[in-house]
Amino acid sequence: MRFAVVDIETRIDKALLKAVFGPAAANEEEAYAQMRTQLGNGFFPLSLHVPIAIGWGEVNADHVLESVTCLAEEADSEEAMAREFWHRAERTGDVLVTFNGKRFDLPVLELQALRWGLSAPGHFAQRQGDQARHLDLLDFLTNAGAVGLRGGLDLALKLIGLPGKGAVDGSQVQSLYEAGRMAEIRQYCLRDVIQTYFLFLRIELMRGHLDHPQYQRALALSSHFLAQLEPAPQA
After folding, report:
1. Helix (H) or strand (E) holding 168
2. Which of 19, 47, 142, 203 qualifies as a FRET site for 153, CA 20 to 30 Å off?
3. CATH of span 3-228
């Protein structure tokens, strides 16, 4: 069994926001500002999020991290990015590993399949049955939402000795995108993929899917990726 660690960064679809929630607004920016005020600068509805970076970490059957990349980076196309994600997910059949992917990453990507007319029969078939093709680490750590995890991914990472989120967090992605700082967004996305992998490795040890020698071997063979966790740039 192979795995793919997935993380997405998103922008807000201001055109869709205005069309659906702010038709009386003078323009998209006014509609966006009005919703920000309504939300108290809180989290925008999932339905308005569009992936602008999708991180993908290849993990082999021995739980060793082989590679980390941002999908369709060269194309710089949101459609190409979504298309590449669903192509990989369907072709490989890898178990997708996320943190909060059940409530955010995958629903956002499913809406992009709807937007662009993409087919993912394997994914949608398994969604109706067991969840063997998706492991949501937050779901595991919170007993399927029965308890909270205040501090989220940053806390879980620091709990096991990793750097955590650094200077950039998800709330800054929209402003980075509007400033054209896509390289920084991709770096932030890859940091999350790498650290989520090491959290996944520790959880696999907890679950008994790895014994201590197997865990230590995977950790040693994957540890060179930790060198990529340079401090995130200031926004």
Report:
1. none
2. 47
3. 3.30.420.10
